Amino acid sequence: MNYRRLHHYMTDLAHKHKTYRLISLFRNDVYTSDPVNVEYILRTNFDNYGKGLYNYTMLKDLFGDGIFVVDDNKWREQRKLASHEFSTRILRDFSSVVFRKKAAKLAHILSEAANSNKTVDIQDLFLKASLDSIFKVAFGVELDTMCGSNEEGKIFSDAFDNASAMIELRYVDMLWKIKRALNIGSEAKLRDNIRTVEELVYKLIHRRT
């Protein structure tokens, strides 16, 4: 019932109860905004709190076996690879320069919006700033989704955003597996958007090989 205002709904619940349980027909979920619990889950006893098969099944079509989806040895392998790459001084220094430039561009956009009394979608801007930074660091490509000057970047950003929304919908849609098998509805849209995302990603990979 609250899916269309999900973030506001969850924020309201977190204000009332730092830790709470949402009970549904087939599963129960526990949520927490208590800093002590968050530290325990993400640091103190991290190995005990994996993503699990349920989340992996939901997310793998978009994220594959990426670090945000997998557990155990696969997660450790990817974390080790990422930490090795970003520990090199050259890449670390380059990353800092890129992130600072993107932050400055974001600040400029917000400043212009404030001066002209214009409403902006801050979540969308944060996502685009992150996407622009990551692509510049990882692939050396200027997507520029914040300003929209790169048509290819805009297409990719929209497709990734749409695919993420369709993936999120799976958590409340009990029929998503049937829709995927029949390639209809939200699952058909998801497949089309994933295809668009993969086209650009593989194109960038081939450029670098």
TrEMBL record:
InterPro entries: Cyt_P450, Cyt_P450_sf. Keywords: Iron, Metal-binding, Oxidoreductase. Its cofactor is heme. GO terms for molecular function: heme binding; iron ion binding; monooxygenase activity; oxidoreductase activity, acting on paired donors, with incorporation or reduction of molecular oxygen. Pfam families: p450. Belongs to the cytochrome P450 family. This is CytochromeC1.
